[in-house]
Amino acid sequence: MSSSSRLAGLDTLRALAIVLVFMNHYLLFVSEGGAFGFWGEIGWVGVDLFFALSGYLIGNQIFAALRSEHGFSLPRFYARRFLRTLPSFYAVLALYYLWPAFRGESALLPLWKFLTFTQNINLTPGTAFSHAWSLCVEEQFYVLLPAVALLIAACRRSLQWAWLAVAASVIVGMLVRATLWDEYVQVPRGGLGYYKYIYYASWCRFDELVAGVALALLKNHHPSAWARLTAYGNRNLLAGIVSTALMFYVFLDDHYGYWVTVFGYPALAASFSLLLVAALSPGSALYKLRVPGAASLALWSYAIYLLHKQLCILLRPHLQDLGYGPDSFMAILFSIAVSVATGWLLYRWVETPFMRLRARYVPTHHA
Fold it and tell me: What is the mean pLDDT of residues 149-178?
């Protein structure tokens, strides 16, 4: 999306997502005393917000192209997606494999798992570059969604089949989480089994991306319903804030519980979907709000996500030697500054050149 066509509301949500993820990772891997408090504890939901955003944006691209004069080109879609996501990912992956000091003492999985985006399958927490699990989920989704969309579009009554696929995704996700919870997690506080077989698993998280796809389907194929929905932007914003706050409470209270595991993720995705609708509603405060720096953070968020966690881990002992403990204001401020600066560098020197290549050789129009 070009800078001129970017929506401030979506940028605000994307910036919020990377801030939440940063706070959670800092709390888990750097802090000694609960840095960022409540927001550090709940910050993992930033990934879920990224999922909802990705589902909507990719779904909107596909459905709009399917309805366009030129139609949808699967090779063009894959070329544009991979030129957007792979160069920065491979650049950071090279740091982990070619510069041992960067990964520290953390175990590194075989390279093929990263190259095939299957690292998240049965992933053990704490391995090097473990936060790339969410990128695996998204890349798998980017590969599957357009193929499924084309298959459904070729069917008679394709719109009904599309909504059936959305409903089936949510139901199957809940059934799979229920089954895996019974098999691996039946202990009071979750533990290894919860993360390894549920939290990181694509088949347990796809329904969150599908929530965004459902919004795109509604926008592109039910324009009157979409118009009615977006006419009440501030109501959607209020409902989204209230429901999101409720889900935060539910997850903090019983994150690893059976009912929260089964129903919590689609409920959280639904809450984020209300925020997405508000961000897309011209009359809402979220649509109109211009948060200073949010557009830049949104633009650099992917690069920041790739680098920030390991950089903060590496900075900690050096800052400690200078007398700045990990929970001190100066240590946190410096870690934020380095994360943003290196994210910008990765965006500027790796992502941007490939985006220019994409614009030149794989433009948005469909030939």
Answer: 95
Query: Residue 165's closest CA among 150, 179, 148, 177?
Result: 148
pLDDT in tens, 257-284: 999 999 999 999 999 999 999 999 999 9
Query: Residue 45: is it exposed, middle or buried by C-beta count within 10 angstroms (0-12/13-18/19+)?
Result: buried
Integer Cα distance of 338 and 155 in angstroms: 51
For residue range 197-223, list pLDDT tens digits in order. Answer: 999 999 999 999 999 999 999 999 999
Helices marked H in 322-351 — which ranges?
A: 329-346
pLDDT digits (tens, 9 = 90+) for 285-304: 999 999 999 999 999 999 99
Identify the CA nearest to 10 among candidates 367, 281, 336, 340.
281
Q: What is the per-residue burial (b if ≥16 Cβ within 10 Å, else e) of 135-165?
A: bbbbbbbbeebbeebeebbeeeeeeebbbeb
